[in-house]
Each structure stands twice: as structure tokens, then as C-alpha cells.
Amino acid sequence: MAANPLQSKFEVLERVRRCAASVTRYPLDILTAEALLEDDLGVDSVKLAEIAAVVGREFDIPAAQLPRSGKARTLGAIADWVVSLRGAASAPAEPPRPEAIVAAPAAATSSAAHPPEDLESRVRAVFARVTRYPEELLTRDADLEDELGIDSVKQAEVLAGLVKELGLSQVPRPSKRLRTIAAICEEARTWLGSAPARMEPAREPSAPVRASPPPSEPRARLPFEGKVALVTGSGKGIGKVIATRLARAGATVVVNSFHSREEGERTAQEILAAGGQALHLWGSVAQEEHLERMFAAIGERFGGLDFLVCNASNGLIGPFDRITPRDWDKAFRTCITGTYECAMRAWPLMARRGGGSIVTMSTSMSQRYMHDLGCQGVVKAGVESLTRYLAAELAPERIRANCVSAGPVHGELLGMFPDAAGRVSRWESATPGGVLCTADDVADVTELLLGPKTQRVNGAIWVVDGGLSGTVDGLLPGAARKTSSRDDHANGHDVRALLALDA
């Protein structure tokens, strides 16, 4: 008889591990009973809530008894929690351990103080529809922002949907008091019982009084206010300009850098100093463990993601016959695999927010020949193809994917080309209008593709090169080049230059 409880606990633990694997897509061998879900495995509070919901369905446990994040730090603790509930069901006189579970609402809370059950179910249904969370996650007392990662913008969308659901005439002003579904249900009941003139919640007397601009001069809402954007390879160059631009448009920007860690940190600090919101995350998009840590941090800190700009790049700039297998591998892992892995990790974070937008980066020479750009040109052609596939695969989740294909852009990158000054002169003469693009030109198109004015643009490759790719002059090496690259190397002229933009 004594072996049965142990056997039962082991079986419960194995089922809990399988539930966690289905949510996190982690292999079972790392989902041990003792591993700390947040510190060791990078499972944030939102993902933990999803695991708890799946466990609840697996063991037919009511949503009100799901564990809070602080009560289930390991899978072993979750298994103990399930076992304790099972024990409580078979022996009602012995209540479950309070540290392992979240108790149902206390009997001291009057049922009359709660909205009718049908109202609560309608509120939860609206939340589930807007956030795409399973309803079992949306418990009465879970903190919407801290525990579920539902920010104020998404909460405002929920309130708008709820007003429509209840047939009210206007959207009430979001209140700081509405931090739980229980509080929203209470507020909704007052809306239903109030005349339209009293729809706006009363001012809380304890709130600090702040001077505000006259009603005739309201602060203009920034286009990306409330949005969260990740820009890979944004410590310098085009990535930095894009990150800064998105921050000025109101987005909270996650700056990412790898080779230029100090520059990435400086970029984030500059955004903060200018009044924007930014966070720097160091890591390589070519390394899976770095990506796991980065996206876990984004999920934990912000609960979701709206924009992803895949700017990190790696590839040899140099003669075609000098490209080594290692060069191809590094370029492919960063530009193709890195972009794919970022998009796959952004997918669920964007789905939580009701959709999102991805912009990848290519070169207009992916479809044309440019001397010394063979490695980049070939791999970036793959990025463009990958973008089209992402657009089709992610469209059901209201996630768009487009590509900015830039030509030569003024900046330090041009200096990496052999005979840079001569080439810039030839490119300018070959460009209609005689002017090469700048990083701001690329940022202009990136910002447009992320925003609402391009909602029906998906799977597109937008070329930004001033018309250079429509010409041939200036792209070829020129008749003056009479020796091969191997001859150049033999004469001591090594023209290899490795392009590594925070891969």
C-alpha cells in the first residue's frame, strides 16, 4: 500500500513534464523535477501560466485552483500541488497545503459582491478573444499586467470589446483599479446599472493631482505608443538608426547587439536619455542558447512582442573564389537560420498581442551581380525567399512579414569594400539622380512596413537603392581589373573583409 502514493507521484510528475514540453517545446530531458522554471529554464510568468492551464486540463482541475507563479517554481512543485489536490479529493477532512496551491475565493467574500456568473463568463470570453489566451488562464484574481503580461494598451482594447459586447454607448476610461478580471466585472456591473452620463468612473481622491494641458491641446498619441519592438543587430549602423526611429515613434525598443556590445548598450542609453523606452539584450542570433535567453527575457519583461526587425547579418565581402565553407556556414546561420529562429520565437509573443509585423533585411544585389558581394548576395536571396514563406505561414496569426532590400548605403559598411572610394563614385554615377541611399532612407521604409498604413502588404520585397539595381554600370569590377583575386593575394593584396553586423 505504501508504494502506491510514490508510484502515483511519479506518474503525475511524468504527465506534468509532458505538459510543460508541449507548451515550451523543450526536450523532456531538461525538464527535470528540480530545475527552476524561471532561473534555469527561462520560463517566464506568462509561459508558466500556460503550463498551469495545460496541467489543469490534463488533471481536470478547476481554473480557480491553478497555482500562481510564485507557488510553482519547479515541475516537482507543480506535481506536488496536483498530488495534494488529489489527496484532498479522496480525504476532504485534510485540506491541501496552502503553500502548494491557490485556494478558491474565501467564503467570507459575499457572492452578492460579485457580478452574475453569466457576466463574468462574458468578460472572460472578451479577454480570451482579444488576447488569444485560453480562458482557464484568465482567473478572477490574476493580476492582468504582472501575472498575465496584458499591458494597458491591450486592456483598453479589452474594455472597448467589452463595451461592444454589453451594448453600451461609449468606452469608459481605463482605471488603475481594474487590475483583475474580478475588478473589471465589478466595474462592468456599475456600467450596466448607470445612466450614460455617469459612465466615466469617478476620480479617486487619493490619486495625486497633476497639472495637465488644456483640453484643447491634448498630447498627440505617437503612432507606435504601447508597442514593443526587437531590432537585432542594432548597436550601430542601419540597425541603430531603425531602433532610434522606432523609439521616437513611441515604441519600447529592445536593442540587440553581439560583436558591438558596448555600442548596443550606448544605443539603449541614448534612447532613454532622449525620453524614449529601451532595453539592451546582448546575444547572437546564430546561437540557440542566446536566442532562448533573449526571447525569454522579452516575454517576462513585456509579455509579448509587436515588431521584429531582423537586421543582424554576417557574410564575407571579398572575391568569390575566396569564400570558404566556414564563411558560408557563418553567413547562413546568421542570415537564414537566425532570421527563422527569431521569427519562430516572435510568433507566440506576437500572437498574444493579436498579431504583429516582421521586417527582414536584404540587399538589392541578391537578384543582380555585384563584384565582391557573392556571399552576401547569395545568402540574402535566401532571406527574401524565407520572408515570403514566413508571410504565408504566419498570416493566420495576423503576423505580416516583409523585406527591405537595400542597395549601397552611406556608412562604415561601404568602407569595407576594396577600392571603396572608386566604387562609391561609380555607384553614384550609375544611380539615377546620382545620390546613394542613407540609413534614414532604409529606416523610413522599415517604419512604414511595420505600421498600419501597410496592413495589406505581406510577403513583399521593397527595394531601396535609388534605382541602382535597374542599371548595370558601376556594378561590375571594370576592365581595369586584370588579375584574379588569387593573384592579388599572391602579390600581398588581401582584399578579404568580413562583414559581421552583430550576428
Structure, explained:
This protein is α/β, with parallel strands linked by helices. It has 3 domains: 3-90, Non-ribosomal Peptide Synthetase Peptidyl Carrier Protein, Chain A (Orthogonal Bundle), CATH 1.10.1200; 113-195, ACP-like (Non-ribosomal Peptide Synthetase Peptidyl Carrier Protein, Chain A); 228-501, NAD(P)-binding Rossmann-like Domain (Rossmann fold, 3-Layer(aba) Sandwich), CATH 3.40.50. Helices cover 42% and strands 10% of the residues. It has 14 helices and 9 strands. It has helices spanning 3-24, 45-59, 75-90, 117-131, 152-166, 181-192, 237-248, 261-273, 288-302, 325-352, 374-394, 420-430, 439-450, 485-490; strands at residues 228-231, 252-257, 277-282, 307-310, 313-317, 356-363, 399-406, 461-464, 497-501. A 7-stranded parallel beta sheet has the order 3-2-1-4-6-7-8, sandwiched between helices. Strands 5-9 form a two-stranded antiparallel ribbon. Helix 8 links the parallel strand 2 (252-257) and strand 3 (277-282). Helix 7 (237-248) crosses helix 13. Mean pLDDT is 75; it is low at 90-115, 195-212 and 478-502.
Kindly summarize this structure in a few lines.
The protein is α/β, with parallel strands linked by helices.
Q: Roughly what fraction of the amino acids lie in strands? A: 5-15%
Domain count: 3
Describe the oligomeric state of these chains in a short phrase: single chain
Series of secondary-structure elements, N-terminal to C-terminal = HHHHHHEHEHEHEEHEHEHHEHE
Radius of gyration: 27 Å
Mean pLDDT: 75
Briefly note the CATH topology name of the largest domain: Rossmann fold
| Global structural class | alpha/beta
In DSSP terms, counting alpha (H) and pi (I) runs of 4 or more, how many helices?
14
Report low-confidence residues grouped into runs of 5 or more. Answer: 90-115, 195-212, 478-502
